[in-house]
């Protein structure tokens, strides 16, 4: 009985790992990478849809005060006119760095009509929140306001992502009856 249970757990773990490898590998060269480790939050304002909003997993599981965090978001323009992201602000960071330019609150990113811009893909802009003024750990949230030229603004609580390894460890502990 106990051996059977151990085999099932191992099979489930192997299945999970194989699925993770397949998801991370992708099916084609023109596809966007899929992020594993928990989805971010979603929001919408006007013709703009924001999907999978989250802060990248921090080194050592923590963003100390004064550090910077990679902001991931898929910005989908469902309108018929180009849109511009004109602001990324929040009470707990000083500004945003876009593609290594100096920190400001004005990212000036164009989202073409009918298209999606990924801030963490190989072809999209890179957004980094500068000088976070509170300690953030995995699964905590940071309030972020996105402001668009036409659509307006929306505020979300963006979660701090957990690395895949921590997610697997947590799942294994739950399967073993711990945690």
TrEMBL record:
Any Pfam family hit: PCuAC
Entries under PROSITE patterns matching the protein: PROKAR_LIPOPROTEIN
Protein name: Copper chaperone PCu(A)C
Signal peptide extent: none
InterPro entries associated with the record: LpqE-like, PCuAC_sf
Originating species: Modestobacter italicus (strain DSM 44449 / CECT 9708 / BC 501)
